[in-house]
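How a chain folds remains the central question behind the approach discussed here. No coordinates are needed to read the tokens, only the vocabulary itself. For completeness, the protein is quoted in full, as a sequence line and a line of structure tokens:
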Amino acid sequence: MAPITQILLLPLRVSVEAENVANEAVTMLREQKSIRHFRWSMLLQEDNKLCIFVDWDEKSALDRYIQSDAYQQLLQFMNSQTTEPITSHNVAFGPYGTAVLDNKGGHGTSPVAEVLYMYFGGVQTESENFQDTATTTVQQFLRKIGETATGMTGESSIGWILDEVEFKGEMCSACVLVVGWQSVESQLQFLATEDFKSALPIIASMQGFRGAHKTCREIAITIEHGVFPSALFINGAEARNGGERRNVLEVMSQIAGRIF
């Protein structure tokens, strides 16, 4: 089966340290041999929100883990560190494309990864080829902005949440777009350009498009990767990364009409 990425959002209590929470989560996940990568970063403008990406070999491995006592212990620990229950989504990136999230201790291609959720509802989403058609349109959008955006790294990934999620009171299909950038500044500067605004209709005109999130709570975020915590979980083994961790997750500002 295809790999799967579990995305977790934790609104941490003020009194807890994000790095301690992340390292404890790594410790609790260490025995899960089906995990490929574990990544985390904080929201820049909301200091107490932690975002975690866990890459699994396949969905069946994640499903087994979710049914286990070990997962309940992880949830109990995480919820003890948060002001409200965590949010969890399982995303199938095709092809397996979370390399855009790898900055390799500051030596990777994409120092910044923009993560955007787009929502689709109505009967249009029930057609057999809906996701394939929508993915093709999102790829067209990426090519369009890539023609003029000087800060894009060329790395990107498109995936779909496996289950429907609620958006503005409606159960919707959700597409997750990850785009690599050279810096937060280059991404924000491009959002203000006419070139970007002229590309928005490609997305806004898609059948069944309902909108996208604009706040970190609703998970429209930009992650700037530094070195991860001291333990990085890769392919069932622990890898060490030295250096300074950078808390640099920036919430996207409101940019245009229906998109946000």
Summary: The chain has a mean pLDDT of 78. Helices lie at 18-29, 59-66, 69-80, 130-146, 184-191, 194-204. The domain at 4-259 is CATH 3.30.70.100 (Alpha-Beta Plaits).
